[in-house]
């Protein structure tokens, strides 16, 4: 299970690169497989599936591994953060293969910190990571977590803030955060961090909905001390300067 | 500001490597500078300082940059997660250099996901990152955040769980988490992830204090669905299998 980071080869760790080079079979979501095109030499078997094909993709990877192939199951970012690592471990256990196959999880630069780097340093203090996708998680639980995170003055990182079908969640999340965070709390939106179509927007909680977001966006909302410094966002850690 | 990941060259991104190769001056905390020894060619100036010298280290980096040098200010893991990026941006602003110097934050594999990869896939669902160091943060606020995170059934990642001088914080954190999480909630401790002296321990909240922790350890406590799968920890995301 290989984390490929944001997508550019400059952000792919040598450990991940080696795993991709050594694998006979590479399995992953279409969009991310395309970012790896230079590595996909003709002798490799490539299995790519669409966005909601996670279980199918994992089962195909396991089938190829059971047949004796070295398989790289690819996640963009880090495979352990809303990626494929957990599902793969669960299916390997179900198939009784967890102890017989050599399994390794190779970390990658996760979207939260890639996006943060483009915004400056918004994650310098305690933060939460929450996905706004309610495909697999009851929306009530997501709302509860948003409220608690805002009450604790955490910096909040939102994964999956919207999709084609889901457009109201970010508005509701903003309402909940506004019960604890000031409207002028700085916020940032990074779409396609470190990819060709990258866009970086610095805004605040009040104006958050004026900026377009989608599945390729990460939204970060500061804590009460987060502020702008030039073009950057900074959350002070508390050093005396 | 360069994130070098866990420490092994295999986890250093090509973007970070290039920055280190191009820099005339490399500034960082002693222990992490030692991990970079193979890159420290004789023509480079190396400035390393002790653990609590963050402000001094940053000022030295800025002085060298102001004098016209390309400077790499090194953080292990990701520079934006309890690293040097925020402090550096604050000091650059204070010195009026934020718009005149070319500033770049280069992300790295952060300790939370490096440790998680060694444990399996504990971060597959919403999680919080909290530092137990009260050097810069009032302990009351840390306790409040722990309680809210536990009440929200977040997976909890603890940075700086203990140091030579601080030994009681993890015990208190465990008490707080036990008000919301079951004693058999799986937990993991990873010390020196991906370094020579790595150790990985899988335990649970009840037995958490029986395992030694220090500044080089990351502690991860699961949510109510986290479970063991073979030697791994897995937090299911909710797929039907």
UniProtKB/TrEMBL annotation, chains A, B:
SUPFAM superfamilies reported for this sequence: Tetrapyrrole methylase
Assigned keywords, A-Z: Cobalamin biosynthesis, Methyltransferase, S-adenosyl-L-methionine, Transferase
Any one GO molecular function term: methyltransferase activity
CDD domains assigned to the protein according to its UniProt record, in alphabetical order: Precorrin_3B_C17_MT (cd11646)
Key word Methyltransferase present: yes
GO biological process: cobalamin biosynthetic process; methylation
Domain Tetrapyrrole methylase, residue spans: 1-208
Protein name listed in UniProt: Precorrin-3B C(17)-methyltransferase
Pathway assignment: Cofactor biosynthesis; adenosylcobalamin biosynthesis
Superkingdom as given in the UniProt entry: Bacteria
InterPro entries: 4pyrrol_Mease, 4pyrrol_Methylase_sf, 4pyrrole_Mease_sub1, 4pyrrole_Mease_sub2, Cbl_synth_CobJ/CibH_dom, Precorrin_MeTrfase
